[in-house]
Amino acid sequence: MAKEQTDRTTLDLFIDERRPGRPKTNPLSRDEQLRINKRNQLRRDKVRGLRRVELKINAEAVDALNELAYRQNLSRSELIELILLAELERQQGTDGHGT
Question: Ribbon-helix-helix protein CopG domain: from which residue to which, for each copy (predicted)?
Fold first, then answer.
């Protein structure tokens, strides 16, 4: 019986065959790679003057932010920052002290 390349029901015929896929090029585990990547991202953000702020808002507000960000071709984070800065500027202008 000939071995058909598309036949995967007789797995014993393919036991020694290497499956196609992404080769492992990094000796570190995936978990370690993620930890290093996150550390590097935090360093890049710090150099750029960015600080992390976490907040919880309802799903309706998130959906509205996503839609508005998409329409303005911004990330949601960029949109939230613009909204906050505009509101802070407005607040400072109305408190009588100005900038």
Answer: 51-91
pLDDT band at residue 14 under the 50/70/90 scheme:
low
The CATH number of 31-92, from 1.10.1740, 2.120.10, 1.10.1220, 1.10.15, is 1.10.1220
pTM of the model: 0.58
Q: Are 62 and 73 in contact (CB under 8 A)?
A: no
Sequence spans of domains, the chain: 31-92
Contacts of 8 (CB under 8 A, 6+ apart): 14
Query: What's the DSSP call for residue 5?
Result: T
